[in-house]
Design goal:
The complex is a heterodimer of chains A (532) and B (178).
Chain A (H helix, E strand, L loop, with lengths): L2 H29 L3 H20 L3 H19 L4 H24 L8 H22 L17 H31 L3 H28 L1 E3 L1 H4 L2 H11 L4 E6 L4 E3 H22 L3 H6 L6 E10 L2 E8 L6 H10 L14 H5 L20 H10 L3 E7 L3 E9 L4 E9 L2 E6 L3 E8 L3 E4 L2 E6 L2 E7 H4 L9 E9 L2 E7 L1 E9 L13 E6 L5 E5 L1 H7 L2
Parallel strand pairs in A: 2-4, 9-18, 13-15
Antiparallel strand pairs in A: 1-3, 4-5, 5-7, 6-7, 8-9, 8-16, 10-14, 11-12, 12-13, 14-15, 17-18
Helix pairs in contact in A: 1-2, 1-4, 2-3, 3-4, 3-5, 4-5, 6-7, 9-10, 10-14
Chain B lengths: L11 H5 L6 E9 L1 E6 L3 E6 L13 E7 L2 E7 H4 L12 E7 L2 E7 L1 E9 L3 E2 L13 E7 L2 E6 L1 H5 L21
Parallel strand pairs in B: 2-11, 5-7
Antiparallel strand pairs in B: 1-2, 1-8, 3-6, 4-5, 6-7, 9-10, 10-11
The chains are: A alpha+beta (532), B mainly beta (178).
C-alpha cells in the first residue's frame, strides 16, 4: 500500500471519529453529562491517537492525549461539563483543521505545541477550582435534576396505547347512544353519559401529556448546521454566517428527525448557489458577509420554519427556461410567485448535467418537496432578485395524531389532513366547467382544477346532482377535491403504510376508526404534484 | 453425530438451516396446488374480512386489514405468484406471516393442515411440472398423498427493484453564472 493511500484511509477514518466526537459534545450540550456518550468519545479519541502516532504525527498524538484527559475528567466529574464544552468543541475544530492541513500536504508535520499547552492550562485551572470545591462538601450536592431520559420507543408505545384508547372511546360513545335509545331509565343513561364524557376528557389529557413529552426544541436540528455552514462557505471562499432564532420552539421528535434533511438541502443549495463571493457582494453594496437566518415560530396549530438568505435571489427567467425544458411549463407560461415553489420542488426539474463537488451528490430540491409532503407540511418560496430568498415551511405540530376531514367518495371513506384543507363547499355538477378538457371550478375569484377523488383512485361511482369540493393546497396552488359526502372532522391516529411494494400515489398513510374499519389518509401533496 | 438426510441438491438447507429441524412443521394451504411455509414464519391465521383496498398499488396488493390495531398489508398470493385468479370465498384465509422484521398477510384459497415433514422428503423443484415460477420456491415435499410446494417467503416479500432516477444538481435557480 502506498503512503498516499494510507494517508487517505487515515483521514477518512479520522473524519468519522471527529463526527462521533462532535455528536457527543453537541448531545451533551443539550442533555447533560452521559457516561455512555463519554465512552463513545473516548473510544473515538483513542483510535485517533493511536492512528496519528502510527502515521508519525507525534505532535497531534500528544494533543489528542490531552483532549482525552479532559474528557475523562469531565466524565469523572472532576471538570464541570459546562466548563469543558467550549474548549472541547474548539479542540474538535483544531483537529479538523489539522486533518485538512494533512490532506493538502501529507508531508506536513503540524506543530500543536501552543494548542496543547492551552489544553493543559485549562485542565489544571479547572482542577484547581475542583480542588477548592472539595473543601466545601455542599458544592457536590448541586442542583437536583428534574429531568429524566426516556427511550423514545417507550413514549411511542404509550402513544400507540392512547391511540387505541381513542378508538375504544369512539366505540363506547356509539354504544352509549345506542343504549340511550332503548333504555328508558333516564338516570341510568345520564350517568353513563357523564362517565363517558369524563373518560373522554381524561383520555384527551393523557394524549396531550404524551404528545408534550415527545416534543423537542427545534434548536436540536438548527444547531447542527453551524458547522456545515462554516465548513461549506469556507471551502468556497465565501463568508456566510448562520443566525438562529426561535430555537426553543418545540416540535414532535418524529418531525424534528424528518426536518433535518430538507433543511440541509435548502441551506446547502443556498450556500452553493445563492451566496455571492465577498467581492461581488461589496460591489453590489451588500455586507461582505452573507447571512442565512433560520427561524422557527408557532402560529396557531402550525410550526412555521423559515430559511432566509440575503444572496442573489432566484432568477425567474432561468427557472422558466429550465421548467420549459423539463416540460413542466408551456413555452408561453410565466414563472410567478404562485407557481415557483411547485416548479422548483418538482421531481424532474433539475436539468443540469454537470455536477458540482458539493451539491451534486444526487440530492436536490425535489427531495425537500417530498419530505415536507410526508410531514403533511407545506412549503413556499419568496425571492427578490439581487436581494435574497425566503423558504417558508409550515408543519403540523405533531405527526402522530392529526385532525382530519373525513370524506366519502365512491363508497369509500378517506381522511384529508386538516392542515392542507382551506375550506369545503357544496356545489352543483353544473358549477363545474370544462377548460382545455379539464374540469375546473371558479371560486372566490380563482379558477382551480377539480380532481374527483374516486376517479383518481380508479373507483367507480355514481354522479349525483350535487357534490362537495374540498379545497386543498398551499399558498400558491389550490385544487378542489370532489367527494360525494363529508363526514365531519375527527382526530385520527396516523399509522404508516407498509411500502415494501411501493408507495401508492395519493395515499399518505392509514388510520383505524372507532368501528375498526381502516381509512386511508390522503397525501395532498401528491395530488398537487400530479395536477398541473 | 447422526447421519443427515439432506437432499443432494442442498436446497432444503435454505429452509432447514440446522439439523435440529430435520423433522419440521409446515403450514400447508391451497392455491390450486398444495403449498407450504415453515410454521415458524406463521404468526396466525385469520378469516377474510374488512379489507380496505389501497388505490394505486400493485394488483397483487389485496389491501390492508386491521389486525388488532395494526394496519397489516395483505398480499394476494395467487396474483403475486401469477396463478389464475380466484374470488375469495368462505374458505379463504389470511395467513399472517412474519419474515424478518416484516409482518404481512397472505391471502390463500384455504388453509389445509399443519404437517410434519422429514427433511429427507424434500427435493428440489421439478421445474417442468409446476405452474408457479420456481424463483419463489425452495423445494417440494413429497408426501404419501401428493406434493407440497415450499414457498420462499423471504424472496417473495423482497422489495421489487425500484428504479432510482438519476437526480442531478438542482443548483441553477439562482442568478449565478452557469
Amino acid at each position: 500500500m502506498e503512503y498516499a493511500d494510507l494517508i487517505r484511509d487515515f483521514l477518512d477514518d479520522a473524519e468519522g471519529h471527529l463526527n462521533v466526537i462532535d455528536g457527543v459534545l453537541l448531545s451533551m450540550e443539550k442533555s447533560g453529562r452521559d457516561k455512555q456518550q463519554i465512552n463513545a468519545a473516548l473510544g473515538a479519541l483513542h483510535t485517533l491517537k493511536g492512528n496519528s502516532g502510527m502515521m508519525g504525527f507525534e505532535s497531534l498524538k500528544g494533543y489528542i492525549h490531552h483532549v482525552e484527559e479532559i474528557i475523562k475528567e469531565t466524565g469523572d466529574g472532576e471538570i464541570r461539563l459546562e466548563e469543558a464544552l467550549e474548549p472541547l468543541l474548539e479542540s474538535a475544530n483544531v483537529m479538523r483543521r489539522v486533518f485538512r492541513q494533512i490532506g493538502e500536504d501529507p508531508s506536513a508535520r503540524p506543530d500543536l505545541a501552543g494548542e496543547t499547552l492551552a489544553l493543559i492550562r485549562f485542565s489544571e485551572g479547572s482542577r484547581d477550582t475542583a480542588g477548592a470545591a472539595a473543601n466545601d462538601p455542599a458544592t457536590y450536592l448541586g442542583a437536583r435534576t428534574d429531568t429524566i431520559r426516556v427511550e423514545f420507543k417507550r413514549l411511542d408505545s404509550l402513544l400507540d396505547l392512547v391511540g387505541e384508547l381513542l378508538i375504544f372511546k369512539t366505540r363506547l360513545n356509539q354504544i352509549g347512544s345506542d343504549i340511550r335509545q332503548v333504555v328508558p331509565q333516564k338516570s341510568l343513561t345520564k350517568e353513563l353519559q357523564n362517565g363517558l364524557e369524563l373518560m373522554g376528557k381524561t383520555i384527551a389529557g393523557l394524549q396531550e401529556g404524551i404528545m408534550k413529552a415527545r416534543m423537542l426544541p427545534v434548536g436540536h436540528v438548527f444547531s447542527k448546521f453551524h458547522r456545515m455552514v462554516r465548513d461549506l462557505s469556507k471551502s468556497q471562499g465565501k463568508e456566510v454566517r448562520l443566525i438562529l432564532s426561535g430555537e426553543d420552539t418545540e416540535l414532535d421528535k418524529t418531525v424534528i428527525d424528518e426536518l433535518e434533511e430538507p433543511l440541509l438541502h435548502i441551506i446547502r443549495n443556498a450556500i452553493d448557489h445563492a451566496m455571492e463571493m465577498p467581492g461581488e457582494r461589496l460591489a453590489a453594496g451588500k455586507d461582505r458577509r452573507a447571512s442565512i437566518t433560520l427561524s422557527a415560530a408557532q402560529e396557531s396549530s402550525q410550526i412555521v420554519i423559515r430559511v432566509r438568505d440575503d444572496g442573489r435571489g432566484i432568477d425567474k427567467e432561468k427557472v422558466r427556461r429550465k421548467a420549459v425544458e423539463a416540460g413542466l411549463l408551456g413555452s408561453d407560461d410565466q414563472v410567478t410567485g404562485e407557481n415557483i415553489a411547485s416548479l422548483i420542488f418538482s421531481a424532474g426539474f433539475s436539468t443540469r448535467d454537470e455536477v458540482t463537488e458539493l451539491s451534486g451528490r444526487g440530492i436536490g430540491l425535489d427531495v425537500v418537496g417530498r419530505n415536507i409532503g410526508r410531514l403533511n407540511g407545506q412549503i413556499s418560496v419568496e425571492s427578490i432578485e439581487g436581494e435574497g430568498t425566503t423558504f417558508t415551511i409550515r408543519l403540523p405540530l405533531s405527526l402522530a395524531i392529526i385532525p382530519a376531514l373525513m370524506a366519502e367518495a365512491a363508497g369509500e371513506v378517506y381522511a384529508i389532513p386538516m392542515s392542507a384543507v382551506d375550506e369545503s363547499i357544496r356545489v352543483r355538477e353544473d358549477d363545474i366547467h370544462m377548460i382545455n378538457n379539464r374540469e375546473v371550478i371558479r371560486f372566490r375569484e380563482r379558477v382551480m382544477p377539480v380532481v374527483r377523488l374516486g376517479e383518481f383512485f380508479g373507483l367507480q361511482g355514481r354522479r349525483g346532482k350535487k357534490l362537495y369540493l374540498v379545497i386543498v393546497g398551499r399558498a400558491e396552488k389550490f385544487i378542489a377535491l370532489a367527494v360525494d359526502r363529508l363526514r365531519g372532522r375527527q382526530e385520527i391516529v396516523v399509522k404508516p403504510l407498509d411500502d415494501t411494494f411501493g408507495k401508492s400515489e395519493g395515499i399518505g398513510g392509514a388510520s383505524i376508526l372507532g368501528d375498526g374499519r381502516i381509512v386511508l389518509i390522503i397525501d395532498v401533496l401528491s395530488f398537487l404534484r400530479t395536477t398541473r | 453425530m447422526s447421519d443427515m438426510h439432506l437432499p443432494a441438491s442442498g436446497l432444503a438447507g435454505d429452509v432447514l438451516n440446522t439439523e435440529e429441524h430435520r423433522d419440521f412443521h409446515l403450514v400447508t394451504f391451497a392455491l390450486g396446488e398444495e403449498y407450504g411455509v415453515p410454521i415458524r414464519q406463521v404468526r396466525e391465521i385469520v378469516r377474510v374480512g374488512g379489507i380496505t383496498m389501497v388505490p394505486n398499488s400493485p394488483s397483487y396488493m389485496e389491501g390492508v386489514i386491521n389486525l388488532r390495531g395494526r394496519v397489516l398489508p395483505v398480499l394476494n398470493l395467487r396474483k403475486r405468484l401469477k396463478l389464475s385468479a380466484v374470488e375469495p370465498d368462505r374458505a379463504s384465509r389470511i395467513i399472517v406471516a412474519e419474515v424478518g422484521e416484516k409482518v404481512i398477510g397472505l391471502l390463500v384459497d384455504s388453509v389445509s393442515h399443519v404437517i410434519r415433514v422429514q427433511a429427507a422428503a424434500i427435493e428440489s423443484a421439478p421445474e417442468e411440472v409446476l405452474e408457479v415460477d420456481t424463483d419463489y420456491i425452495t423445494g417440494v415435499a413429497k408426501l404419501r398423498d401428493g406434493l407440497v410446494i415450499l414457498l420462499d417467503l423471504e424472496r417473495l416479500l423482497r422489495r421489487e427493484k425500484i428504479e432510482v432516477k438519476d437526480m442531478n444538481n438542482e443548483g441553477g435557480i439562482y442568478g449565478e453564472e452557469d
